[in-house]
Amino acid sequence: MKMTIRRTRRTDARTFLSLVDALADYEKLPRPTPSARKRLIRDGFGSRRRFESLLIDADHVSVGYAFFFETYSSFLARPTLYLEDIFILPEYRSKGLGKRLFTACLAEAKRRKCGRMDWVVLDWNAPAIGFYDRLGAKRLKDWLIYRIVL
Q1: Residue spans of alpha helices (H) in the chain
Q2: Whole-model pTM?
Q3: Which listed residue (65, 82, 92, 132) is catalytic?
Q4: CB of 53 within 8 A of CB of 7?
Q5: 132 given a catalytic annotation
Q6: How far apart are CA 108 and CA 105, in angstroms?
Q7: Could you read off the pLDDT of 91-137 as tens digits, one per residue?
């Protein structure tokens, strides 16, 4: 299997959105609404990008993506690469593609001179938790995640 990782381009918008839909289906969440889809295109590919993404292709077919952006740590005085999504279509898992995509995100964080890379995982997602544990990631125990939806 030929595998490539590349930056998502505006011409990949339809593919990118289909992978976001696949992640929503996997997580049993609603897919983005039509207005949310327009914002994703604008914010990911417009003149003022709010996030970046990578696609992973297997034999010239996009089978996964990573979605990330920078935050900033006041204590480290360095950026943090925040990994919002990393997803591989279920039929392409256990082939090393997720590890390659995750490693590409780590390399991007290092290239940017980030002090860390952060992400969250759903507590029921045992395959993802096992994946991160095998990579040597540390689960934070002292931090609780809060959210206000606006």
Answers
A1: 13-26, 34-45, 97-111, 126-134
A2: 0.93
A3: 132
A4: yes
A5: yes
A6: 5
A7: 999 999 999 999 999 999 999 999 999 999 999 999 999 999 999 99
